[in-house]
């Protein structure tokens, strides 16, 4: 289950959303369980397999300079701050330069160009347009 905290009309809500079972989802709001029926079954996103030996998490980029993301030691490009993916500008197998903008991340109503951070080839892309990501989340693998 994923848990979210919301504030609506100055009232706090803690919402836990379970996995969809067809058109039905189990939702808990402030400790009360609800069975929610969706108008249609959720569409699944294509999943790109991560490497078998996942690299250790690299520290997140400094918040004072979010635009240029840094690649982790093993080539994993991390999100410098939480936001929404507006566009993915590369494909798996594409060669990139360190200064190439590989995706655009919207955070706090600002568009942030995320650069590759190093020369290499895109081996895997872990996000899609419209995905919400947290700070330090893996975005793609560049080797």
Key features?
mainly beta; 143 residues; 12 strands; four-stranded antiparallel sheet
Number of helices: 0
| Cα Rg | 18 Å
| Computed structural class | mainly beta
Task: Provide the spatial order of strands within the biggest beta sheet.
Answer: 1-2-3-4
H/E element sequence: EEEEEEEEEEEE
Number of strands: 12
Strand count, sense and barrel status of the largest sheet are:
4 strands, antiparallel
Low-confidence stretches: 57-73
Q: Strand content of the residues, in percent?
A: over 45%
- The CA-CA distance between the termini, in Å, is 33 Å
Specify the overall morphology.
Answer: elongated
Assembly form of the protein: single chain
Q: Helical percent range?
A: under 10%
Mean model confidence by pLDDT: 79
Any chance you could write out the topology, listing elements then pairs?
Blueprint: E1 2-8, E2 11-21, E3 24-29, E4 32-37, E5 76-78, E6 83-88, E7 95-96, E8 101-107, E9 110-115, E10 120-125, E11 132-133, E12 138-142
Antiparallel strand pairs: 1-2, 2-3, 3-4, 5-12, 6-8, 6-11, 7-10, 8-9, 10-12
């Amino acid at each position: 289950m994923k848990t979210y905290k919301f504030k609506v009309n100055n009232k706090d809500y803690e919402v836990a959303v379970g996995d969809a079972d067809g058109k039905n989802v189990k939702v808990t709001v402030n400790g009360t369980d609800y069975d929610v029926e969706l108008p249609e079954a959720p569409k699944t996103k294509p999943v790109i397999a991560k490497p078998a030996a996942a690299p250790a998490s690299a520290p997140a980029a400094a918040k004072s300079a979010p635009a240029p993301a840094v690649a982790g030691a093993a080539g994993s490009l991390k999100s410098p701050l939480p936001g929404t993916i507006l566009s993915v500008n590369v494909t798996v197998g594409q060669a990139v330069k360190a200064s190439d903008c590989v995706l655009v991340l919207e955070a706090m109503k600002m568009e942030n160009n995320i650069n590759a951070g190093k020369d290499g080839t895109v081996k895997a892309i872990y996000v899609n347009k419209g995905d919400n990501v947290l700070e330090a989340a893996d975005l793609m693998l560049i080797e």
